[in-house]
Design brief:
Number of domains of chain B: 1
CATH topology of chain B: SH3 type barrels
Distance between the termini of chain B: 12 Å
Strand order of the largest sheet of chain A: 2-3-4-1-5-6-8
Radius of gyration of chain B: 11 Å
Helix content of chain B: 10-25%
CATH class of chain B: Mainly Beta
Number of helices of chain B: 2
Oligomer: heterodimer
Structural class of chain B: alpha+beta
CATH superfamily of chain B: Ferrous iron transport protein A (FeoA)
Order of helices and strands of chain B: EHEEEHE
Largest interface: A-B, 47 and 39 residues
Largest sheet of chain B: 5 strands, antiparallel
CATH superfamily of the domain at 7-172 in chain A: P-loop containing nucleotide triphosphate hydrolases
Strand content of chain B: 35-45%
Radius of gyration of chain A: 34 Å
Shape of chain B: globular
Helix content of chain A: 55-70%
Structural class of chain A: alpha/beta
């Protein structure tokens, strides 16, 4: 690239619902990436394109109605414009909403940056009967104006060229100066004069802009002046005086007059540039809203849409995982091929650890199909404009608990009923504009019933509440949201007290048909973000958990014991087959381990194979691998050169090995159980027993609960490995095994455990998401700790309280349910201080 | 009277905004300046918030926020 080609920084600004992201995509195409603005969770999209040899780097600013410093988005947009000084700013304007959009345009003009106005969605405006004179608009504002139809790609080249030409002429860039009226202009002019005497200020900022903002009482700009100017105190004092005078004289704050003048100017321009042709009295949006926001139909439609999302994403998505799981399992087995092979009793760490990590990763990746559907559906809800209606309908309910109408979606994704995932739930909290409500939502999403909690519910309900299955499921799927709402209110009144709260002033955008490309782009973007972030975390966590349940390991005596047991079994095996067996040499010493692997592989390959043809293919494959071993695994019955052969020696080896294999498995299991029980995690389980016994948890349950921290779906698996089958002959079902070991368990034990699981702290990937979304480690730790306390208190209440009062499981449940509803209702009526000042 | 007192279907014109700070600025930004015409469209199913038509677009806000807007009926 030659030197004279430049890199041009362009910012895309605009109000929400102006089609800003569509224009950003239009300009940059696929060449973009997503980052975060420093220190905050607002997405920063950066893309680029080449024009006339120059590289144009485009940054998508957050959509804002104004550029004050009251909201995070506005601060970010403004700071970017001030500090990064883009060479050209593109102001995307909704053509059918020109007046309000021009309000922002005036503020951008005031900042003194070269500006291009992109009049977007001119087709929609045309259909609504607005005819806009683009030339006149450009004349009135004294800036270039390009009309586009973003979602159909119209106006792309013209916009690009205009950006480039504006860049080339940026030295000469001038624009109109908005007249704020005589009263204000006098003050503004004297302020501007004062400000322009300080070169450190005027070097970076337009003095007009500074003057207007100072007069508006903008605290961020005051801070800025303090930082940059030596006579800051003098200037700020003067501003204060002038404001005071103005308010005393005109009985109105300057910012009111300023806003009024901006709107007046916008109104005048609209009058000059927009012709109303065939004015439609009722738009399609009006007609849809009449039904969708109706007092009776509205909630029904909302419920239907939520149910539909749940069905499509969770139920159907879960079915999809049946197809994707074999791929993931295949990947695991593929990796296993390159790792050191299994030992007879003890696997080498280079095998066990990587496989443990991969198991952790694929357990999470397994949910990707669900996420793909979910994210696509959310993108559709966002793009159509229904999301705003959802908030409109539900805000009243959620507000009682310090949440926001927009909290509904994260809660659904988290699994309000049964089956969700907290990760997309926490991600979806981005849409909540009220910081306080957003944090409260982030913190309660993990209390919903994510899919990984369900196996334990099912197991325990099957064991202790078989007759009241439906009632129990209803209890579980409703108790969590009831408790979560109360928790939200309590968090709101305590730890979140000081968080910024925003008024609920929500535009109800016109309905749009979402485009396939737009939806897919957003969906892929989010899934990719998820996969990228999660995998790295899970790898680390899975490795740590592996270490916690494997170390410090068994002591020497026990290790020797297991080895001698294994050797004994092997000796018995050799004795059984005898020295004169043809195969003895083939399975002797080091060959035995090779055969073990072969045997296991063959058994694994045969699982689920039904057709005769498939069986033959497997047979052929294993025959090619090792014909002698093949004879053994076939119990000596095989075909050789078309003749059926019965090989008694092979049959004998097979029979003896079957016994050995069983012993081997039993020893491995026992050893694993003992390792876990004596591991760091196991010790913690024992250590906690004196406390957790009040909730009905013994050390075995403690281990299962502790190990669930990495991934809750493992709770049942861990229980499975702790409650090993004691009968050698038959694999008993887990329910029976638990009942055998825990003779004294009552339904109260189960209920306590269920409630604790319902409140179980978020899994590590969710915690990581919380850290990202809350932009703070402190909140992440809080999110991990408070559910433990909450869940434990509830479990103690149910278990110890129930025992004290002599309740049955069902009675305890009903009483607890009533108390929970009562608490939540009381919470709803506690008024929070209205933040209207 | 204040905006929250206007009946559904009623039309009014903004006189003043009482709120200052974030809420006041937000209302100004959204077009609640003296002389702006507002039409009340509908209440949400649970009465609050309320949807209005202002400056050519639809906006919903809570009654508590509407209370800070002084209006005159048209």
């Amino acid at each position: 690239m030659s030197e004279k080609f430049k890199e041009i920084l362009v910012a895309v600004a605009g109000q929400p619902n102006s089609g800003k992201s569509t224009i950003f995509n239009l300009l940059t195409g696929a060449r973009q990436h997503v980052a975060n603005y420093p220190g905050v969770t607002v997405e920063k999209k950066i893309g680029s394109f080449r024009l006339n040899g120059d590289k144009v780097v485009v940054v998508d600013l957050p959509g804002t109605y104004s550029l004050t410093s009251y909201t995070q988005e506005e601060r970010i947009a403004r700071d970017f414009l001030l500090l990064e000084r883009p060479e050209v700013v593109v102001d995307v304007v909704d053509a059918s909403n020109l007046e309000r959009n021009l309000y922002l345009t005036f503020q951008l003009i005031e900042m003194g940056l070269p500006l291009v106005l992109d009049l977007n969605m001119v087709d929609v405006a045309g259909r609504r009967g607005f005819e806009i004179n683009v030339k006149e608009l450009s004349l009135q504002l004294a800036i270039p104006v390009v009309s586009t139809i973003g979602n159909r790609g119209k106006g792309k080249n013209e916009l690009r060229q205009t950006i480039h030409s504006t860049y080339r002429n940026k030295q000469k860039f001038t624009s109109i100066r908005l007249d704020y009226g005589e009263n204000l202009e006098l003050i503004l002019m004297s302020l501007e004069k004062e400000l322009s005497q300080d070169p450190r200020l005027t070097e970076h900022y337009s003095s007009r802009w500074l003057a207007v903002r100072l007069l508006e009482g903008d605290s961020e700009v005051q801070r800025l002046v303090r930082q940059q100017s030596q006579k800051a105190e003098y200037i700020l004092n003067k501003v204060k005086q002038q404001r005071k005078h103005f308010i005393a004289k005109h009985k109105k704050a300057p910012e009111k007059i300023i806003a009024q003048q901006r709107y007046r100017a916008a109104g005048k321009i609209v009058e000059k540039c927009v012709k109303r042709t065939n004015a439609i009295s009722k738009t399609l949006t009006d007609r849809i809203d009449k039904i969708v926001c109706d007092r009776f139909l509205g909630p029904i439609i909302l419920a239907a849409i939520i149910y539909g999302m749940y069905q499509l994403a969770i139920v159907q998505g879960y079915k999809l995982t049946e197809y994707t799981w074999p791929l993931l399992a295949g990947f695991r087995n593929f990796v296993a091929l390159f790792l050191p092979s299994e030992g007879f009793i003890c696997d080498p760490i280079l095998r066990a650890m990587p496989l443990g990590v991969i198991d952790g990763v694929i357990a999470v990746l397994n949910y990707v199909p669900i996420f793909v559907i979910l994210f696509a559906l959310i993108a559709i809800l966002e793009d159509t404009g229904y999301m705003a209606r959802m908030a409109f309908i539900l805000d009243r309910v959620f507000r009682c608990f310090g949440l926001h109408g927009h909290s509904v979606l994260p809660l659904i994704l988290g699994g309000v009923c049964v089956g969700g995932c907290a990760i997309p739930g926490v991600m979806a909290c981005r849409g909540i504009k009220d910081e306080k409500a957003r944090m409260a939502t982030i913190l309660i999403v993990p209390l919903m019933n994510c899919m990984a909690k369900i196996p334990l519910y099912v197991l325990l309900i099957g064991m202790f509440f078989a007759k009241q299955k439906a009632l129990m499921m209803f209890f579980i799927s409703t108790i969590t949201i009831i408790i979560a709402l109360a928790a939200a209110k309590i968090l709101n009144l305590t730890v979140l007290r000081k968080k910024e709260s925003a008024p609920f002033i929500l535009e109800m955008p016109a309905y749009h048909l979402p485009t396939f490309g737009g939806v897919m782009r957003r969906c892929v973007e989010r899934v990719w973000l998820f996969v990228k972030k999660i995998i790295t975390v899970v790898i680390v966590v899975a490795a740590i958990v592996y270490a916690l349940i494997s170390y410090p390991g068994l002591n020497k005596d026990r290790t020797v014991y297991y080895e001698s047991q294994a050797n004994q079994a092997i000796q018995i095996f050799y004795k059984k087959i005898g020295d004169d067996n043809l195969y003895t040499k083939l399975v002797a010493e080091s060959q035995l381990m090779k055969f073990t692997t072969y045997w296991e592989d063959y058994k694994k390959a045969k699982i689920g194979v039904k057709t005769k043809q498939a069986k033959e293919t497997i047979g052929q494959k294993f025959f090619n691998k090792n014909p002698d071993f093949f004879k053994i695994v076939k119990r000596g019955k095989y075909e050789l050169e078309g003749k059926k052969i019965v090989d008694k020696d092979a049959a004998k080896v097979e029979k003896a090995y079957k016994k050995l294999s069983k012993t081997r498995k039993k020893l491995r299991r026992e050893k694993r159980e003992e390792t876990i029980a004596s591991s760091y995690l196991g010790r913690a389980g024992h250590f906690l027993e004196p406390v957790t016994k009040f909730a009905g948890f013994n050390w075995r349950v403690n281990i299962a609960l502790l190990s669930s921290f990495a991934a809750k779906e493992s709770s049942v698996a861990t229980l499975g490995s702790i409650y090993q089958s004691s009968s050698e002959e038959k694999e008993a079902r887990l329910e029976e095994r638990i009942k055998q070991t825990e003779q004294g368990w009552t339904p109260l034990h189960a209920l306590g455990l269920i409630l604790f699981m319902a409140m179980y702290p978020p899994c590590i990937p969710t915690l990581f998401m919380i850290k990202l979304e809350a932009a703070s480690l402190k909140w992440m730790l809080f999110a991990a700790v408070y559910p433990i306390i909450l869940g434990f208190v509830m479990a103690v209440l149910v278990f110890s309280g129930g025992n004290l009062l002599g309740f049955s499981g069902l009675q305890a449940m009903v009483v607890f349910y009533i108390i929970a509803i009562a608490v939540t209702t009381v919470m709803a009526f506690i008024k929070r201080r209205t933040e209207l000042t | 009277m204040t905006l929250d007192e206007v009946k559904i279907g009623g039309e009014c014109s903004v006189e003043d905004v009482f709120a200052d700070g974030a809420l006041g600025q937000r209302l100004l930004d959204m077009g609640f300046v003296p002389g702006t015409r507002i039409k009340i469209i509908r209440n949400a199913p649970l009465v609050d918030p309320v949807e209005i038509f202002i400056k050519g677009y639809f906006l919903s806000l809570r009654h508590a926020e509407a209370k800070t807007v002084e209006v005159v009926l048209l």
